Amino acid sequence: MGKKRKHSETADVAVPKKDEAAPERPARTLLGWKDKSEVNGDVEYDDSPVFRNKEKVLVTCSRRINYRYRHLMLNVVSLLPHCKKDNKVESKETKGATLNELVELKNCSSCLFFECRKGKDLYLWMGKCPNGPSVKFLVSAVHTMEELKLTGNHLKGSRPILTFSTNFEKDSHWKLLKEMLLQIFETPKDHRKAKPFHDHVFVFSIVDDHIWFRNYQIDVPHNETDKLPRGGLEQMNLVEVGPRFCLNPIKIFGGSFGGPTLYENPFYVSPNQIRALEKQKKSGKFAKKVKAKTRRKMHEMSNPLEPDEFAEMWKE
Amino acid sequence: MEGPLANDDTMIDGEAENLSEEMSASESESDEDVKLTEPSKTAVYNRDALLDKLGDISWPENVGWIHTLYIDIDQEQEVDVNDDFTRELAFYNQAFEGTKQAYQKLQSMGLAFLRPPDYYAEMVKTDNHMQKVKGRVLAEKRKMEEAEERRKAREAKRLAKEIQAQKTKERAKQKKQDIESVKKWRKQRQQSGFAALGDDADLGFAFEDGKSFERSKGKRPGVSPGDRSGGKGKQAFGKGKTQKKREFRNSKFGFGGRKGMKKQNTADTTYDVKGFNKGEGKGNNKRKR
């Protein structure tokens, strides 16, 4: 495993390495890896130096995860051919360290960790390892691909087209999130398991400070594979494939699963607190009743009734 | 790891997790994902560090679009989160726009991007699952069609009933009219003292001549007014063999049915000579030979 360097540094190193191509295997960096054409002598420099997306995502979950969230995780695994699914992780306090180790072991560059608490709330940790930022989201509005109302289907492993709404440029934390989503969800171009055509599209959009995810199959009547028929775009039809979920960013950390907090969502209320508030409201009913009773008693005591003239009428 | 967070927005101590200030916002909407009405004042927002990190992780600037394949779409209007339909429509439009632009780019690059219909490879949903989906879609369609048919049948039935009601009303009216006209005629005749026998002028009224007669004739053809056998209805009941039997019996025994099954030589009939000679005709003539 090559030393992980910042991108700006490798740019300088890649050029001198070209000469050593024949005798020695060059070190493996994100920008390294000789292109075959370079060995032959004719160099292509459309993006210099040659960029290779070597993103690998580790997908795991915590123990005691709900069936619905487990299916969501499996759906995500099927959508990302460049991911590795791993066994359940004990959700202890040291989970940051455990996860970092796992990622190192599996030789991955980012991680998606589905943490389910109380069997009800799903938190998604998304992080770039080893020193990248990480985000914790609260996931809601989950619909998996198994729902019969989501009728679309697409090739497993085909590269998706990602669409982001321009809201992502509004603020720096959105920009960071956009970059992370891009890197994690976009299948690398020459990945082993990637299939050739582009027949589905992801939608990430920000509504009400939440990130909404949708996945649509593109259905265009066509005859040739590289040219749209005339008027083809008008007959294009998008069918939803799923899954669907909604992410609420809670915190962004500087390190991988830890480190200094760079961003906190000021509007976030944890689901536990919501439930606690509800309970309080309900419990308030009884307390109010008791209070009302005592108040009535006090009132009666302080304003005694005048004796009733007819009270003795029927007494013998 | 990072440089000193020298920003006004940062927290002094690391207990930023303790969001106890949010208890004040008890006026939260009753939703699954509740938002605070006022932002918590202790929230960290370190813009510089965020942008720093962004610089760290981004891919180099000159990476071709083909690697990232992303499109930015402008979301024109504010979408209301709770209005499901418009929200989904906004997402759909975003996807549509994005695909259009992406396809145009891909086409200009000359890459193959449309899946040919005979390209069979593993799909993200299994064939079994797609069968279930198809079944459900068909079932829904069938339900809708059945509902439509039922509604149409109900409408048609109602219409037919109305028409029939009208027809019977008309017929009843007509019948009433006819009877009334006969009564009137009789009254008139009574009044004019049965004198106007040859007077056709009186007759030339409400019978609507031949029309009503014909109608009744049309209803029961082959029945003469003097026939008391119950008309075609009775005859038509037992078609074929029973009809023939009936005819034979009628002819043999006349009215009253079978006399033969009763006792013939009883004490009374021994000395009954009524039917001796004349009875021959009675016995033989009516039987069709």
TrEMBL record, chain A:
Residue ranges of every copy of the Brix domain listed in the record: 55-258
Sequence ranges of Basic residues compositional bias: 285-298
Compositionally biased residues, Acidic residues: 306-316
InterPro entries in UniProt: Brix (IPR007109), BRX1 (IPR026532)
Major localization listed first in the record, in broad terms: nucleus
Stretch list, region Disordered: 1-27, 285-316
Location in or out of the cell: Nucleus, Nucleolus
Comp. bias regions, Basic and acidic residues: 15-27
SUPFAM superfamilies: Class II aaRS ABD-related
Keywords for the protein's UniProt record, in alphabetical order: Nucleus, Ribosome biogenesis
Entry keyword Ligase: no
Keyword Nucleus belongs to the record: yes
Similarity comment text for this entry: Belongs to the BRX1 family.
PANTHER family per UniProt: RIBOSOME BIOGENESIS PROTEIN BRIX, RIBOSOME BIOGENESIS PROTEIN BRX1 HOMOLOG
Protein name: Ribosome biogenesis protein BRX1 2
From TrEMBL, chain B:
Alphabetic keyword roster: Coiled coil, Nucleus, Ribosome biogenesis
Biased composition (Basic and acidic residues): 142-161, 167-183
Superkingdom in the source lineage: Eukaryota
Chain intervals with Acidic residues compositional bias: 10-20
Main localization, broad class: nucleus
Pfam families in the record: Ebp2
Keyword Nucleus on entry: yes
Subcellular location: Nucleus, Nucleolus
Chain spans, region Disordered: 1-39, 142-195, 209-289
Protein family: Belongs to the EBP2 family.
Name the UniProt record assigns to this protein: rRNA-processing protein and EBNA1-binding protein ebp2
Source organism of this protein record: Stylosanthes scabra
